[in-house]
Specification:
The chain is an alpha+beta fold and 452 residues long. The protein has eleven helices and twelve strands.
Length: 452
């Protein structure tokens, strides 16, 4: 069922419930009003007939004839009059005597002066009327045929009006719902036309004031992120293919050269060394991609434990020193400024070690004197790790794209272009900060800032 039909039925159903409740209350009120008004009519007829009998001295036979003539035609009330001794003075038709006044009833009327009750749908009143000589008891009873007929027609009119209003309301609510959801239909049609090759297209947003326009804006933001993701994916695949193709081409070239003709053992050793270097380059690239994938996980999927940041830094220094024996590593901690507690953070030891190694490798690679300084210190409420090289520095233009995937800037040094991008992701996973301070010709300083 469509939203339009569902909303139309919902609002029609709600309105129907309220209308039926209103009709029931109205019918109940009208029924009570009819009953009260008819009691008043009966009381007026009872007093009028008492006046005709006791004051006007109208012949009772004439009154009885009038009653019998009008009883079936206009629903004349049946009236009975008793004196203070409870003796019957007058009765419209003693043979019918619908009420059949009992001594107990007459005693109740004399005592309470006024009673009302319903007997077989006939309404009955009993009155005590005092005069100078005593009192009279008058009863009057009748069936309100006109009132009940009026109520019946009123109910019929209400039900006819109810059915008409419900049909009209359903049509109107369906029209209003369709007009209100028309922008959604347009959005659906536009969204259906957007494919992987047309992610640049956007939904019409309007002025962004109602919920549907906010939904369109949110959907467009999602499309923007998807478009960027697809573009990044294409760029990633292209750069990855280039990075893998280069060492593979070197390996295949060296092997093809060896297979052309027999070579001396020295030539074979040179080729094997070249192939070994290219294979190691592919191995580093593969490991970097695996680390990049792990760092891209949701933080909830990464295991975080309490670790010592200085121990992780030392482990990274040892590993880099083993592969770069010609580099000089200087490590220092300002013990007077930093405590044991400050050195303890919540993190993933393996990923942080990878991040430090990436920056240390770059520092060793670019330092002209092969000297790298590592300092751990406290800055306000943060524990900082600074890695300082003495290389050529980084230009302002390169700093803007320094952490982009596969970006290497203008450098002759070999590399995959993954390290710093991977490092930035690892730092973000730890809710920490990584920034660079560099000036051309004066080296660079990479600063990791962790909140305890």
């Amino acid at each position: 069922m469509s939203i339009t039909a569902r909303q139309s039925l919902f609002f029609t159903g709600i309105t129907a419930v309220f209308l039926i409740a209103f009709m029931l209350l109205f019918n109940r009120s009208a029924s009570n009003t009819r009953k009260v008004e008819f009691y008043r009519v009966l009381e007026a007829e009872a007093l009028t007939k008492l006046h005709l009998i006791t004051t006007a001295k109208i012949d009772p036979n004439i009154l009885q004839v009038i009653y019998r003539e009008n009883r079936t035609r206009i629903g004349e009330a049946e009236v009975a009059v008793y004196n203070s001794d409870h003796q019957l003075l007058y009765h419209d038709d003693i043979n019918i005597d619908f009420v059949k006044e009992t001594p107990e009833m007459l005693e109740e009327i004399a005592r309470d002066k006024h009673i009302r009750f319903i007997q077989d749908k006939w309404q009955v009143v009993g009155l005590r009327v005092d005069d100078d000589e005593g009192y009279f008891i008058v009863t009057a009873a009748a069936y309100d045929n006109y009132g009940f007929t009026k109520l019946k027609r009123q109910r019929q009119s209400l039900w006819i009006t109810f059915v008409f209003l419900i049909m009209l309301l359903f049509i109107l609510s369906r029209y209003i719902a369709r007009k209100a959801l028309q922008p959604l239909s347009i959005m659906v049609n536009e969204a259906k036309s957007i494919t992987a090759t047309s992610l640049y297209r956007r939904l019409p947003e309007g002025k962004g004031k109602d919920e549907l326009e906010q939904l369109a804006a949110t959907f467009n933001n999602m499309l923007e992120r998807l478009d960027q993701s697809f573009s990044s994916q294409k760029s990633f695949v292209s750069n990855l293919a280039h990075e893998v193709r280069t060492p593979l081409a070197g390996i295949l070239g060296e092997i093809d050269l060896c297979l052309e003709k027999p070579r001396k053992s020295e030539e074979y050793i040179r080729v094997l060394n070249a192939v070994h270097d290219d294979a190691r380059r592919i191995s580093r690239l593969t490991q970097s991609l695996l680390d990049l994938a792990q760092a891209g996980y949701d933080s909830s999927a990464i295991q975080f434990t309490q670790i010592r940041i200085d121990e992780v830094v030392v482990d990274a220094l040892v590993e880099v020193q083993q592969s770069r024996k010609d580099s000089l590593m200087e490590f220092s901690i300002k013990e007077d400024e930093i405590s044991e507690t400050d050195l303890s953070i919540v993190g993933n030891e393996y990923l942080l070690k990878v991040a430090f190694i990436n920056v240390l490798e770059n520092a060793c690679k670019f330092s002209e004197n092969k000297k790298v300084e590592v300092r751990i210190y406290r800055d306000q409420n943060k524990t900082c790790v600074a890695i300082i090289d003495h290389g050529p520095g980084i230009s302002v233009k390169d700093q803007e794209r320094l952490f982009e995937l596969f970006y290497r800037g203008k450098t002759s040094q070999p590399g995959t272009g993954i390290g710093l991008s991977l490092t930035r992701r690892i730092v973000e996973q730890h809710q920490a900060e990584l920034y660079v301070v560099s000036k051309e010709g004066e080296g660079s300083t990479f600063i990791f800032s962790f909140v305890n």
